[in-house]
Specification:
Layout (H helix, E strand, L loop, with lengths): L11 E7 L8 E7 L17 H14 L2 E7 L1 H7 L1 H14 L7 E5 L11 E4 L7 H24 L5 H4 L5 H10 L23
Parallel strand pairs: 1-4, 4-5
Antiparallel strand pairs: 1-2, 2-3
């Protein structure tokens, strides 16, 4: 069972992102404030769960959380400010939308850009340690997967329904053959070194 909180009696929001290592698509982040007595034995790092489990947990989280929100940063913004800053910005945008103001932020990872005057703690592999970060990882992952599945219907050659924009062999081969879309991150290494990029219409 994951931990319910870091600081007892403090309103904590767990934050996590999804899609940082992708070649295409926005980066998504979620912020979740769970009730202090929240318990769920299945909830864990979203990468440890099946797709069916993630979507079932999303319903539980949205129903039982005191507050939750999802923040999005576009591929164009990622190219402008870099993926690390984009991940921080997505988390900031998620926290911006929370209906309850947190007193502390629990951040998955080892780096974060301070949000206003709210103190934060970074936790390496926090999505496998704290329920609120795990909940944020589930929301960020499922909402981003929905977005990539929708993009797949418009650009099916890249296989985004399966690879979600990550750098698989099939994805890179499709980029080499068909060029890039407006959703590709142009500052990322989209191809292997000796291949030439073209623009998909």
């Amino acid at each position: 069972m994951l931990l319910s909180y870091l600081n007892k009696g403090v309103v904590e929001a767990g934050c996590d992102e999804a899609g940082r290592g992708c070649l295409a698509g926005a980066v998504y982040a979620a912020a979740v404030i769970l009730p202090p007595n929240f318990k769920n034995e299945l909830l864990n790092d979203s990468k440890q769960l099946s797709e069916k489990q993630r979507y079932a947990l999303r319903e539980v989280i949205e129903r039982e959380a005191l507050a939750w929100a999802v923040g999005i940063v576009s591929p164009q913004e990622i190219d402008e400010i870099n993926i690390l800053n984009a991940s921080f910005l997505a988390m900031h945008r998620a926290v911006d939308q929370l209906k309850v103001r947190p007193e502390h932020l629990l951040i998955d990872g080892n780096r974060f850009k301070k949000y206003q005057d709210i103190p934060h703690t970074t936790v390496i592999k926090g999505d496998g340690k704290y329920l609120s970060i795990a909940a944020a990882s589930v929301l960020a992952k499922t909402y981003r997967d929905d977005y990539m599945a929708d993009l797949h219907t418009r650009f099916p050659v890249y296989g985004w329904d399966g690879n979600k924009g990550y750098p698989t062999k099939k994805h890179r081969e499709a980029i080499a053959q068909h060029g890039v879309t407006p959703y590709h991150r142009l500052t990322f290494r989209l191809l292997n070194n000796n291949q030439q990029l073209s623009l998909a219409l």
